[in-house]
Amino acid sequence: MMDTLLDKCNKLGLKMTEQRKVIVKVLSDSTDHPDVESVHKRAAKIDKRIGIATVYRTIKLFEDNNLLEKHEFKGYSSRYETVRENHHHLIDVRSGKVSEFRNTLVDAMQKQVAKEMGYKLIDYRLELYAVPIENERTKK
Amino acid sequence: MMDTLLDKCNKLGLKMTEQRKVIVKVLSDSTDHPDVESVHKRAAKIDKRIGIATVYRTIKLFEDNNLLEKHEFKGYSSRYETVRENHHHLIDVRSGKVSEFRNTLVDAMQKQVAKEMGYKLIDYRLELYAVPIENERTKK
DNA sequence: GTACATGCAAAGGGTTTGCAAACGG
DNA sequence: CCGTTTGCAAACCCTTTGCATGTAC
Question: How many domains does chain A contain in total?
Fold first, then answer.
């Protein structure tokens, strides 16, 4: 029922080169919203002949086909994750760790806000930047 | 009661060069969240000897002193506005026009969401990407 | 076989920085 | 004055692209 990233590639009829298979594996195994450089490094561990330009091109291809979602968190270069259910992100500003959460009430509210302003909502971004409570007093 | 950007600079004791005065004027007169290039162009109309590096440096200075807020909307280079009350943005994805709105209920909810996840909220980003309703059917 | 994907290196945006000259307090 | 700020151009980072070569289907 739940297609893997590789399944989705096949359904789209994408030509599956060795490099793409490796990148698909890396992305499927990642849960940490890696950036392009991280994907490249992880891919290079499997097959060191993969160029970073290929990683960029492949990621863009997947993004254009709605297989990957791009995030541009404050202070980071673009980070990616496989598309899944709608959710938002909390970024630990100390470690860069990303956690996910859902909030359907807020989702509905934003649609309404846009409507009241005379717009139809296409997309929206909700990101929380925070520090772990237990460490808060060591803040600086 | 409400300090202007220039007042704030003076209170901070910033050295007010001719260039900085011009940039302050441009920023104070802007309501459209300009990017660095736009600020530079507008500044150049007043005094054409202002270099873009100076604009970058001045904007960074103001940002570091909490006089300016930086936004990185999807698909745009960084855009700035003078700091004011807390508010969020709706970006017209066709024209790039930015509108503002407030939603204190959502603000409170996000603080709570972070808390439930074991974090203290430092900052958050809420951006709506939308198209005007009257134009919606001409979408493409 | 052929159109498409790759690696490399060069080019591209947007932004920063080193330097000598100019300037503000 | 003297440390700060400036303009210029070079450097920077991340990303894209042109080209000759390699490869999936």
Answer: 2
Contact B109 A92 (CB under 8 A): no
Q: What is the pLDDT, as a whole number, of residue B138?
A: 54
A14 lies in the same domain as A76: yes
Per residue in B75-104, pLDDT (tens digit) is: 888 999 999 888 999 999 988 899 999 999
CATH of the domain at A24: 1.10.10.10
CA A15 → C1' C4, Å? 8
Q: Of B55, B82, B109, which residue constitutes the final position of a domain? A: B82
- D strand bases under 7 Å from protein CB: 4-10, 13-18, 23-25
User: Domain span at residue B108?
Assistant: 88-139
Judge if B9 and B78 occupy the same domain: yes
This prediction has a pTM of 0.87
Condensed to tens digits (0 to 9), the pLDDT of residues A88-135 reads: 999 999 888 999 999 999 999 999 999 999 999 999 999 999 999 975
| Mean pLDDT, rounded, of chain B | 91
- Whether A128 and B114 lie within 8 Å, measured CB to CB: yes
Q: What is the 3-state secondary structure (H, E, C) of chain B?
A: CCCCHHHHHHHHCCCCCHHHHHHHHHHHHCCCCCEHHHHHHHHHHHCCCCCHHHHHHHHHHHHHCCCEEEECCCCCCCEEEECCCCCEEEEECCCCCEEEECCHHHHHHHHHHHHHCCEEEEEEEEEEEEEEHHHHHHCC
A32/A69 same-domain check: yes
